[in-house]
Design a protein that fits this description.
With 139 residues, this protein is mainly β. Helix content is 5%, strand content 54%. It is globular. This is Cupin domain-containing protein.
């Protein structure tokens, strides 16, 4: 077992029931809530772990997240391309992480490979009453 999967497995031991969601406008992508917990010392805030799995060539459309969301994403497998707020498109490999702050625009979120799958764990700190975590751009 790879060392970076341990936090995911530990968190899943106390998980809410998992669900899978097809992201509107995504191609070859799967999103699963793997845990959700209210933060006991921060009323109104929760932490949610979301597993994003991209098949070869998979991607999510440009999007923002819930207005209260602070996100810490770690690539678990393969490599993921990401672009925040019109900055450079960066490639993050397994074990590497990036952060998104409230209001950030995620212009690119995609598997960096057309041949191998990739996975990332996005940990959200968000207002407990926020139900929609990802809002695709309007066309």
């Amino acid at each position: 077992m790879k060392y970076y999967l341990l936090p995911l497995l530990l968190a899943s031991a106390h998980a809410a029931p998992a669900f899978a969601d097809n992201v509107p406008g995504a191609d070859n992508a799967k999103v699963t809530l793997v845990y959700e917990h209210a933060l006991p010392d921060v009323p109104g805030k929760s932490i949610r772990g979301v597993l994003v799995e991209y098949g070869p060539g998979g991607y999510s459309p440009a999007h923002t997240h819930a207005k209260s969301a602070i996100i810490y994403a770690t690539v678990l497998e393969g490599a993921v391309k990401s672009q925040i707020n019109g900055g450079p498109v960066r490639t993050f490999k397994a074990g590497e992480s990036f952060t998104e702050l409230p209001g950030d625009h995620h212009g690119v979120s995609a598997n960096a490979s057309d041949k191998e799958p990739s996975k990332l764990l996005a940990v959200f700190v968000v207002n407990t009453d926020e139900k929609v975590l990802t809002i695709p751009d309007q066309k």
